[in-house]
Design a protein that fits this description.
Number of strands: 2
Strand order of the largest sheet: 1-2
Helix content: 25-40%
């Protein structure tokens, strides 16, 4: 079994962080890199449905092309759409 950091390190050998554009936000956005990976869900965008699917299938790593945190966050307060997504809270 691989740790999440091992998977990230492998991905960064294929697509080095140094290659990202100045406006990109690559790398681990949330979570513990030392956790053992129990499964990976890959998607273009992070949505509640993508997170729901990962949880229902026991996956603890979601890899997306479009980063959920693109600009600097100042808080993870309830009601903010990005904060709700990153903490998997729904305001429905």
């Amino acid at each position: 079994m691989a740790a999440i950091k091992d998977i990230i390190n492998f991905l960064e050998t294929v697509a080095p962080i140094a290659w990202q554009e100045g406006y990109d936000n690559s790398g681990l956005a949330c979570g513990d890199p030392d956790d053992i990976c129990t499964g990976i869900n890959v998607s273009l965008d992070l949505t509640h449905e993508v997170v729901d699917e990962a949880i229902s299938k026991g996956m603890n790593l979601v890899i997306v092309h479009h980063p959920p945190i693109f600009k600097g966050l100042k808080s993870l307060a309830a009601g903010d759409p990005v904060a709700n997504l990153m903490t998997h809270c729904r305001s429905e």
